[in-house]
Amino acid sequence: MTEISGDWTDTDHTDENAIPVSFRKVENKRVIWVEGASYRLATLSGHFELAEQDNNNPISLNNGENRIPVVITWKNTTLKRDFPLLIVSDRHYELIESFNGYVVDNVE
User: Nearest CA to 70 among 107, 98, 16?
Assistant: First the structure.
């Protein structure tokens, strides 16, 4: 996995055709299940581990969009700081407090 901050010379910034390609098992983690969420123009569905496990209200409103920080990589690349923000619709997500199973790990 490559760790980068602002220089994306070897990684696409966006890809509307990107999909989850790898998953990892988690136990007793707070996750969000989403359908049709958006990240870097890709439309994503599935379970995602919340980056902020102790935050009672992990969803923030920014420019009229619900955004939630999650633990994923983009094309095997992780951001040096901050977490990726999924954009979710009000009707197409569910927060799950103690999830055991597989979450999206990498999107390509």
Answer: 107
Q: Which residues contact 42 (CB under 8 A, 6 or more apart)?
A: 14, 15, 16, 17, 18, 19, 107
pLDDT in tens, 45-104: 999 999 999 999 999 999 999 999 999 999 988 877 789 999 998 889 999 999 999 999
Measured CA distances, 73 to 9, 69, 77, 82, 87 (Å) = 16, 12, 5, 12, 16
pTM for the whole thing? Answer: 0.90
Nearest to 38 by CA among 94, 91, 72, 85: 85
d(CA 81, CA 2): 13
